[in-house]
Amino acid sequence: MKDTRYEVALANGGGLAAAMGRASRAAREAVPVADEHETAIRDVAAGVAAPVLTGYVLWLLEEARERDLDRLCFLSRDAQVLHEIARTLAPRLGTDIELRYVYSSRRTWSLSASDPYRLDEADWLFNSFIRSNAADVCARLGLDPGIAPPLLARVGASSNPADRADSPAQNAALRRFVALPEVARAIAPRIGRMRDLVLAYARQEGMASATTGLVDAGWTGRMVAALHSVLDSAGLPLPHAYFWGHERRKAGGVAPEHVSPYMYNTAGEPGVQWRVPDCPYIIETFCMSDHSIVSGYREAADGTLTAELKDSNTAVTKWGFDVYRATVRAFTEALETEAANEDIRPVLSSVLRGFWTRPTHAEAAAWGAYPYDSDPLGRSALPLARPFTPEELAAAGEPGFRWGDRAWLPGSLALSGEHGRRAAELLAPRLEWLGAPAAD
Known about the structure:
Shape: globular
Number of helices: 18
Distance between the termini: 41 Å
Number of strands: 9
Radius of gyration: 22 Å
């Protein structure tokens, strides 16, 4: 079996990076595949995703040891794979810390921290990869749709599903809608109930503690900030947050003293030298889970709270989840950990950039088909990449070039034949720096 370009790059890094290259090859040898689609999933999982995520977990376990934390709570859904990696590696590293997988979502934590009389300031209601329409806003609030139409009409908000909050007029109208006293009165009891449930769940899972670390992919920290707000209002201690990357905003994110990023931090150390364009899309894809979004919490007869899950993550399963996760698992099991504390972020950033900005056609076809979904309701999934038409690419060299709802620009270009190749040449070297972080 010939080494992949990622394994060659890792081997050239020496030490821990080279050990990851060997683990990548071992994982590819261990996981059977049926076709080109599964091959591309497996090879990128082994050579890119597994090293990038495992590097984060190794750093995380060392950080937890240095801070003398009692537990790490891995937040659903993005941290499910990180939890699995940590459970494999912690015993081998002699790390004695409680590792818990806890259920969270913007529909629970962000709602619980919202002020029913200031909902027009709650950006989480309107932001996502695909911006909210009126039905989305009502569903995020849990608002009875029966009362919405006349109120939407009163403030000039469109009920057309195609009219979304990326339009300034619709955005402003939706904010006027949620600011109505009728909406506040309708939603206030639900917010109060959710706040009580989130507080109880945080206590149950050990999150209301200064010796607990919360683990997530990133980015702005608004969801962790929401939990902090709820805990602080109850006079409870705040857990520390760990992110793969931190996209700090001017307002609304987690306080800087309560967050430690691994790969990069747009507002401080370690800076942005290792940031890859559109990092949230990449890492959230690598952090795919086998369950869907948490819609609430249910109390059992013994008083224990369990998560209410919307449904299973069937689209991701169909895409190739089992091959992906089996490969990550095989990589983790094969990894030699003697050099576990080495800082290999420059190598990992280079490998990640190589995949994301210069994919092969087979990689773009397989990973571009991934059903990416950043919507709190789980109903706005789109493929990461989609081919351009020649007409769309005619403006590729112009300042106004737009790629719309395509999260992965280089992948979309790789799928667009000769026109895509010429467009990539026009955009180079800007192609490696184009892109912006996810909205929330």
